[in-house]
Amino acid sequence: MSNSERDMRIPIFVKILKSTVDGATKSKILKDATPLTHEQLRRITAELVDKELLRYVDGKRVYITTDKGHQFLDQNRNLEDAE
User: Fold this and answer.
1) Which of 8, 16, 35, 67 is 20 to 30 A removed from 75 (C-alpha atoms)?
2) Within 10 A of 24 (CB to CB), how many other CB atoms are there?
3) Would you say residue 10 has pLDDT above 70?
4) CATH of the domain at 30
């Protein structure tokens, strides 16, 4: 993946992580965060879980932003503030 492709995904990551701060189902993420298909959301949430930015709570069937995900959000805010 090129740097520009990675940069284009950051806003999507941020929207998903913001949507899941207090926990969210896939349906809520689709509604709140982005106009993604279910398949796109599945791939992206899997990637965020692999990167430990997002955690899936199986018993509750929700995704929750991890501490590392909060750090990612903070870093992204700092970049936005610098522009």
Assistant:
1) 35
2) 21
3) yes
4) 1.10.10.10
**What is the domain extent for residue 47?**
3-82
* CA-wise closest residue to 13 among 39, 38, 37, 46: 46
Contact (CB, 8 A) for 79 and 43: no
Whole-prediction pTM value? 0.83
SS3 string, 54-66, reads EEEECCCCEEEEC
How does pLDDT run across 24-46, given as a tens digit for each residue?
Answer: 999 999 998 768 899 999 999 99
**Please, what sign has the CA dihedral across residues 60, 33, 74, 69?**
positive
Assess whether pLDDT exceeds 60 at residue 82: no
The separation between CA 6 and the C-alpha centre of its own chain, rounded to angstroms, equals: 13
